[in-house]
Amino acid sequence: MSESNDNTGAGPQEWRVVFLNDSVTRMSYAVMVLRKLFGFDEATAVQHMMEAHESGRSVVWLGVRENAEAYAFSLQQWHLCATIESDETS
Amino acid sequence: MKRVDVRLSIPAVAPLLDLIKSVAEELRSHLAVPIALAEADAELAAVWREDLLESQREDCDRLFSLFDQEFFSEGVISFDRDNAEAILRACAALRLRFRRTHLSTITDETLEAIEASTNIGNWDAAEQKAFACYMFLDELQKIILKYLDPMVPEEE
Question: Is the ipTM of this complex over 0.85?
Fold first, then answer.
C-alpha cells in the first residue's frame, strides 16, 4: 500500500482515498488524472495505476476527512471510481 | 493557444453520433461511475450525485458542440486547452456507459482481444455499432492525450 508523502502527519483519525480499478478507462487517462489531482510525478502515478489494476485498489492519499472527500469527489468527477476509508474501517 | 484540428470521415462518424447522443442522454440522469461511499455516507453521496450529474451534462454538451455545422460540411473538429479536459471526461463517461449498457454481455477478455484485433464479425449489428462508438471515443481521448495532455505545459 502506498501513501502520499505530504500528508502522513495528520490528526488522530486519518482517512484514506482509495482509487479503485475499472476495466474500461484508458491507462494513460488514469495516469494523467492522478498526476493532475495529486501532483504525482509520472512514475508515482503509474505505480498507483498499476497497483489498482493488479490488486483492484490503491491508496492515493492519506489525511483529514474533509480533504479526503474533496479528492474522492474530484476522482469521481473524472469518472475514476474512488472511495474514502478511515483508520477504523481497516 | 495550441489547437488541434482533426479531419474525420463524415460518412463513418455521422452514423455513430445518434447512438452516442442517446447514451449521453442516459448520462443526464445516471452517473457513469456509481458513487462508492459507505452506507453511512448516504447524505454526502446524495449531494455528490447532483453535482456530478451536472458536471457530466456540461462535459457531454461540450463534446457535442464539436459536431456542429462545420463538422458536417468540412469533417473537421478542433481541440484546444479550453475544451480538452471536458471532452476527455465526456469520452470517459460515455465509454463507461457503453460498457455498462450496450456492451454488457461481452467479457473483459473478449473486449480486450477485440480491441487489439478489431475483428467483430460475429457480433450482432447493434453490438458492432456500440463497439465502433466505444472505439471512436477512445480515439478522441488518445488524440487529446497525445497533443494536448493537460500535464504538459503549453509552449509559448
Answer: yes
A78 contacts in chain B (CB < 8 Å): 89, 92
Structural domains in chain A, sorted by start: 15-89 (3.30.1390.10)
Q: A18-75 pLDDT, tens per residue?
A: 999 998 999 999 999 999 999 999 999 999 999 999 999 999 999 999 999 999 999 9
Is the CB of A6 inside 8 Å of chain B's CB atoms?
A: no
Q: Are B141 and A26 in contact (CB under 8 A)?
A: yes
Task: Give, rounded to a whole angstrom, the gap between the first and last alpha carbons of chain B.
Answer: 9
Please state, in angstroms and rounded to a whole number, the distance separating the CA atoms of residues A53 and B88: 20
Q: What CA–CA distance (Å, rounded) separates B90 from B56? A: 7
Query: Using the beta-carbon criterion (under 8 Å), do A79 and B108 form an inter-chain contact?
Result: no
Contact assignment for B96 to A77 by CB distance below 8 Å: no
The three grid cell numbers given for residue B14, joined into one nine-digit string? 455521422
Angle at B32 between CA B31 and CA B35, to 5 degrees: 60
* HSE value, Cβ hemisphere, 13 Å, CA-based, for A85: 13
Question: pTM value?
Answer: 0.90
Q: Where are the domains of chain B?
A: 3-147
